[in-house]
Amino acid sequence: MIPHSRPTLDQDDAEAVSAVLKSGHLSQGKQVAQFENALASFVGTRAGVAVSSGTAALHLSLLALKIGKGDEVILPSYVCTAPLNAVHLVSATPVIADIDRNTFNIDVFDLKKRITRRTRAIIVPHMFGLPAELDEILSFEIPVIEDCALSVGSRYKGRRTGSLGTLSIFSFYATKMIATGEGGMVLSDREDLIDAVRDLRDYDEKNKYAIRFNYKMTDFQAALGISQLKKLSSFVERRKEIAAIYSRELGALGLQAPFVPEGREHIYYRYIICVNSLLKFIEGMNQRGVECRRPVFKPLHRYLGLSGYAAADDVWDRAVSMPLYPSLREMELQDIIESMRAMLRG
């Protein structure tokens, strides 16, 4: 079975982690600080704070913005539950927006209709590696949290995603663009927000008591992150190469490749196609030894029992994610294409 996703690791990564083991310092330390500086420099922000997961990064970002009970946070429906969990963790009210069915990102027009006097933040995921439409969202003058869990390395109108919002968050799960096993980070140009996140991630040895967390990253993880970040450009190029091959095949079959608006760089964390018989396609590909998946397990509005999200419902009914990662071998790629061709022609 060709897996849907797989980490891309090499000897350099193993040696980086081994060096931490040999140093005897395993918890948060110099490697974490180096990783924070490296990612902030790469993205183009003043500073970063490494944490234990992307969910922790979202949670601390909302707390740093002093968002709590009675406040509203807008987020799109077609996303994993992590942003919704973070909103609930601070006791705020989630306001769910529909998506643009062409880009899978938050629909700016629907978002605008949902802004009220209680709106305190907007969480904007850059879905599957394609930057969301940021100019108009930023013009609302409401704090924006860029969710770059799927987009590190991409650009919006020449700037790295993660450098435009009030804060940005990243995830380094095992199969993300760069991997630390688990882990995340918060970036910002605002010193007060960075200081707040840094204070909240660790509960120990504080002069005054407040509820804080054990959201630290280890030096093991950070060393792996530093090694992976050095290879991110090559990871992105390989992803684009595979995506171009998929797109050519779809074109030959008379089908639509993923839409990329002008001014946005897609890094193809996921390659999404829309099919008429989703479950049949997934099952057929599995029978041929290719694991395909729904890119989002279930839209948030369905968890919450809400209606009126036509685009998210349509995409959920038809979108499927193809295997795409730098460690995908040429023979595997050819098997995937042959299987995709057979299913789409059938």
Task: Give the helix/strand layout.
Elements (H helix, E strand, L loop, with lengths): L10 H13 L6 H14 L3 E5 L2 H11 L7 E5 L5 H8 L3 E5 L10 H6 L5 E7 L9 H5 L4 E4 L7 E2 L2 E2 L6 E5 L12 E5 L2 H10 L18 H12 L1 H21 L18 E4 L3 H10 L12 H4 L6 H9 E4 L7 H16 L1
Parallel strand pairs: 2-3, 2-4, 4-5, 5-8
Antiparallel strand pairs: 1-9, 6-7, 8-9, 10-11
Helix pairs in contact: 1-8, 2-8, 3-4, 3-7
How does this model look, in words?
Helices cover 40% and strands 14% of the residues. It contains 13 helices and eleven strands. The radius of gyration is 20 Å and the shape is globular. It is of the alpha/beta class and 346 residues long. The protein has helices at 11-23, 30-43, 54-64, 82-89, 108-113, 135-139, 191-200, 219-230, 232-252, 278-287, 300-303, 310-318, 330-345, and strands at 47-51, 72-76, 93-97, 119-125, 144-147, 155-156, 159-160, 167-171, 184-188, 271-274, 319-322. The protein folds into two domains: 11-230, Aspartate Aminotransferase, domain 2; 232-345, Aspartate Aminotransferase, domain 1 (Alpha-Beta Complex). A hairpin with a 2-residue loop joins strand 6 and strand 7 (159-160). The model has no long low-confidence stretch (mean pLDDT 97). A seven-stranded mixed β-sheet has the order 1-9-8-5-4-2-3, sandwiched between helices.
